Amino acid sequence: MSNAPDTGRVVVTPVRVVIALCLLAPFVALLWVGSYAKVDPALAGIPFFYWYQMLWVVVSTGLTVLAHQLWRRDQRTRTAPAAEGGASE
């Protein structure tokens, strides 16, 4: 038996669930066309249908950046104990 961590096993953590929700939210919001297929309320003369989609471009960018930061932090915390354990032996 080896003391090496099992890297082939998928571990579902709360952080990974949040990452998945951050990446899934824009798809759900934009594929549900019935929720925004209307003209009113207009913003500066732009129908709701258009400005809602453009708003999601900005929101999607923020959610993707957040997911990336959470993923990097998750990877650092997962690899840190393995590195510390290997250095002490």
Structure commentary:
By secondary structure, the chain is mainly alpha-helical. The chain has a domain at 14-74. It has 2 helices and no strands. The chain has helices at residues 14-31, 48-88. Helix 1 runs antiparallel to helix 2. The protein is elongated, with a radius of gyration of 20 Å. The mean pLDDT is 86.
Summarize the structure in short:
The chain has 89 residues and is mainly α. Helices cover 66% and strands 0% of the residues.
Counting DSSP H or I runs of 4 or more residues, the number of helices is 2
End-to-end distance: 16 Å
By oligomeric state, this entry counts as single chain
Strand content: under 5%
Helix content: 55-70%
Query: Runs with pLDDT <50, length 5+?
Result: none
Organism: Streptomyces tropicalis
Keywords: Membrane, Transmembrane, Transmembrane helix
Pfam families: DUF3311
Protein name: DUF3311 domain-containing protein
Q: How do the strands and helices of this protein lay out in sequence?
A:
Blueprint: H1 14-31, H2 48-88
Helix pairs in contact: 1-2
Transmembrane segments: 17-37, 49-71
Organism: Streptomyces tropicalis
Pfam families: DUF3311
Keywords:
single chain; mainly alpha; 2 helices; 66% helix; membrane; DUF3311 domain-containing protein; transmembrane; transmembrane helix
